[in-house]
């Protein structure tokens, strides 16, 4: 590998301070972006979406569990699949303990198209029992929010499902969709990526700008469900 040059302690400290200064600037930019998110226009959710939970039928309003805010992560698990998406598993494994969200009047739930009879055993296998998980497979929540095709597509990955994070606000019984992100927008909540971005070799993926000879493999292909490594 073409490693960076070795320098004195003084030179190293100066170089590290330059990196930290740029990180602080990015933090300020992130704060400004978060302020803009808080002022983003909202969309009223007009429909009473239905889900199936461990105890039967619930609505989107029920997913709030009485709190004012809700994050709903659409987890790629199609009705024709026997286990959930490995990439979505990577996302959920990195979540904070949801009690910290509850402390700020915020609920979190996973939602998928697969029936609840498939979701609960897989949740148990992954050790996520504290995370609520609901099936919208008998409704059209994922379809109408653009996260799923109208009909499952068994010839495509996870039946054609898409992953993504929605944020909702509740005012009484009125629900508003306030934010959505997918793809690399979810990396900001994942410490695995944050840690690797600060590691000497980075994420070790082919898209990265790294010195010659650094180990690199195609992105996503190294991900596994945590009990499959």
Structure description:
The mean pLDDT is 95. The protein is of the alpha/beta class. The relative contact order is 0.16. Helix content is 30%, strand content 18%. β5, α5 and β6 form a beta-alpha-beta unit. It has a domain of 142 residues: Glutaredoxin. The longest helix has 30 residues. The strands form two sheets. The protein has a six-stranded mixed β-sheet. A two-stranded antiparallel ribbon has the order 2-3.
CATH fold descriptor of the domain at 43-184: Glutaredoxin
The first-to-last residue Cα distance is: 26 Å
CATH class of the domain at 43-184: Alpha Beta
Number of beta-strand segments: 8
Fraction in helix: 25-40%
Mean pLDDT: 95
Compressed to H and E, one letter per element, the order equals HEEEHEHHEHEHEEH
Query: Which consecutive residue ranges, at least 5 long each, have pLDDT under 50?
Result: none
Number of helices: 7
